[in-house]
UniProtKB/TrEMBL annotation:
Gene3D superfamilies: NADP-dependent oxidoreductase domain. This is Pyridoxal 4-dehydrogenase. It comes from the Bacteria. It comes from Mesorhizobium ventifaucium. Residues 20-329 form the NADP-dependent oxidoreductase domain. PANTHER family: GH17980P-RELATED (PTHR42686).
Length: 343
């Protein structure tokens, strides 16, 4: 399989063509670390200059900070030369600095994030995104974080699912039919919620974070077959499961934004051993694995430093022998049904 980053893949039923590697904007929203504005914008330009053309962001990322930095970095480039994916479900309200709950964002703009999946809330979010991103159009709009992982309970996830499908979904379909956006979808952390949305509406693509990775493949059970049936393109996020598939099973490795449990470390250690036997970095296998599925159009990776951009390019181009995937399946570390990249 040719992993040249400049090659383009169709994104589901949309007219868009995207790179196999895309820029995940959470890290330049000051996730886990504070970045200087000019430094963060330089990382975006480094990615663009390297051939990466899909930039994924969200109002939630640094409460507008990721949007601002991506917009400022790209605004003087030809608008048709890049694709912007952003999200809806939150709009931003000015707030006193000392009153803002920043969560795991070390630095943010001085805005409070208001959860709102209604028609009016989504339209307000889109209008704000235009301004922060310094653009008069968006390419991909994703319903953000309608899942238990984000909201803490099934009751709240169900409430927001109903709100968006009863109200906000109409805003997305209007924007798509008017030509204001080219693709609509969902961006969440749960494969079963993606499947639920796929059954409930007409979506072009979905960003699934952390549930279709070298470590776990729950999306294979129901969601990915639905994507084949309904021609839904996938942007695979969280391909390193927030750290452990990049760092390996070292002390303090992160899994799902927390210290990795012992059983996770144990399985990753076994995967790591297989990779070592084939002289393949664990992170290279992790970044390439999702792209073996016919509906995965791109992997979205956070890049907070220029050298991280080059590292991701090297990983996605690293040759991986077919025997590595075969051994992972033989050892029970990948299901036999999992499609894999082939040389």
């Amino acid at each position: 399989m040719d992993m040249d980053v400049t090659n383009l893949r169709s994104l589901g039923s949309s007219p868009l063509q995207v790179n196999p590697l895309s820029f995940g904007g959470a890290t330049i929203g000051d996730l886990w670390e504070n970045l200087d504005d000019s430094f963060a914008e330089g990382v975006v330009r480094t990615a663009y200059d390297a051939g990466i053309r899909l930039f994924d962001t969200a109002p939630f990322y640094g409460h507008g900070l990721s949007d601002y930095r991506i917009g400022h970095a790209l605004r003087q480039l030809p608008r048709d030369s890049y694709t912007i994916s952003t999200k809806v479900g939150r709009w931003l309200k000015p707030q006193a600095r000392h009153k803002i709950d920043r969560g795991f964002w070390l630095g943010t703009l001085d805005f409070e994030s208001i959860v709102d999946y209604s028609y009016d809330g989504i339209m307000r979010s889109v209008e704000q995104s235009y301004q922060r991103l310094a653009t008069n159009r968006l390419d991909i709009l994703l319903i953000h974080d309608v899942d238990v992982w984000s909201h803490g309970s099934r009751e709240l996830a169900d409430k927001y699912f109903k709100q968006v499908m009863d109200s906000g979904y109409r805003a997305l379909t209007e924007l798509r039919s008017n030509g204001d956006v080219k693709a609509i979808g969902v961006g969440v952390n749960e494969a079963d919620m993606c499947a639920r949305f796929a059954k409930a509406g007409d979506f072009d693509c979905m960003l699934l974070a952390g549930r279709y990775t070298l470590y776990e493949q729950t999306a294979l059970e129901e969601f990915l077959p639905l994507c084949v049936e309904k021609n839904i393109g996938i942007l695979a996020g969280g391909v390193f499961n927030s750290g452990i598939l990049a760092t390996g099973s070292q002390k303090d490795a992160r899994y799902n934004y927390k210290e990795a449990p012992a059983q996770v470390v144990q399985k990753v250690s076994r995967i790591e051993d297989v990779c070592k036997r084939h002289n393949v970095p664990l992170a290279a296998a992790a970044i390439q694995f999702p792209l073996g599925h016919e509906k995965v159009s791109s992997v979205a990776v956070g890049m907070s430093k220029p050298e991280r951009v080059q590292q991701c390019l090297d990983l996605i181009r690293h040759p991986i022998p077919n025997d590595l995937w075969a051994e992972l399946k033989h050892e029970g570390l990948l299901p036999e049904s999992a499609p894999v990249p082939t040389v």
